[in-house]
């Protein structure tokens, strides 16, 4: 029984480390403070910081993680909430990075091409059909066929937007914005799936 408890705890520690890896380094003073208080194990202080920065998913995630123990009866619920927070953090970070890249692209000699390249960096395939979609990314009809088989896939949706991005389009910037936000949502879903799989492997 003792060996089983130790094994589970080590696995849970691996999950926590994955969370921290996904969060990355803090980028604001309150995130640095939240991380410092988290390392001290001060749950009240971490949650106070989040309560003062409600749009900050980095602090929100740490507010959940600081309560994670192997004996907590609400462990699954806490980890699930933390998984949502870290995924939301990934989405916001992707939006910020794509936005910065787009701003540079729009001032270049090839705004459509450079904005497309910028967004494609966030569309990393995880399945064969997603790779096929990327290989066919300029073929609208092929992408629509793939979408019929995978209607909820945000990688395909983002690629479909990009097929409509042409320099002479009167709604070019709207199209780029839709492709970008869809790519960021795809990033969120990838992060959430990876964390959720790790949680399930640790607790089942």
Write the element-wise H/E pattern from the N-terminal end onward: HHHHHHHHHH
**Helical amount:** over 70%
Alpha-carbon Rg, integer: 20 Å
Strand count, sense and closure of the main sheet? none
Content of β-strand: under 5%
Per DSSP E runs of 2 or more residues, the count of β-strands stands at: 0
First and last CA, distance: 16 Å
Oligomer type: single chain
Unreliable parts: 1-10
Number of helices: 10
Give the structural class. Answer: mainly alpha
Shape annotation? globular
Mean pLDDT: 94
Layout: helices, strands, pairs:
Blueprint: H1 2-23, H2 29-40, H3 43-51, H4 57-65, H5 75-106, H6 111-120, H7 128-135, H8 140-149, H9 154-163, H10 172-203
Characterize the structure shown.
The protein has 10 helices and no strands. With 204 residues, the chain is mainly α. Helices cover 75% and strands 0% of the residues. Mean pLDDT is 94; it is low at 1-10. Helix 1 packs antiparallel against helix 10.
Any key phrases for this structure?
204 residues; mainly alpha; 75% helix; globular
Quick overview of this protein structure:
With about 200 residues, the chain is mainly alpha-helical.
């Amino acid at each position: 029984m003792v060996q089983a408890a130790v094994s589970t705890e080590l696995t849970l520690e691996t999950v926590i480390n994955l969370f921290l890896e996904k969060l990355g380094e803090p980028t604001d003073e309150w995130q640095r403070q939240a991380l410092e208080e988290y390392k001290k194990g001060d749950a009240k202080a971490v949650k106070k910081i989040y309560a003062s920065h409600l749009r900050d998913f980095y602090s929100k995630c740490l507010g959940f993680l600081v309560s994670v123990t192997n004996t907590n009866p609400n462990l699954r619920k806490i980890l699930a909430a933390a998984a949502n927070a870290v995924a939301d953090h990934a989405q916001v970070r992707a939006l910020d990075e794509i936005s910065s890249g787009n701003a540079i692209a729009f001032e270049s000699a090839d705004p459509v091409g450079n904005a497309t390249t910028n967004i494609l960096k966030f569309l990393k395939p995880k399945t064969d059909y997603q790779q096929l979609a990327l290989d066919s990314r300029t073929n609208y009809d092929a992408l629509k066929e793939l979408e019929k088989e995978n209607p909820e896939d945000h990688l395909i949706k983002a690629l479909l937007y990009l097929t409509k991005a042409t320099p002479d389009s009167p709604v070019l910037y709207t199209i780029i914005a839709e492709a970008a936000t869809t790519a960021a949502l795809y990033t969120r879903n990838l992060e959430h799936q990876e964390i959720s799989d790790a949680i399930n492997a640790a607790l089942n």
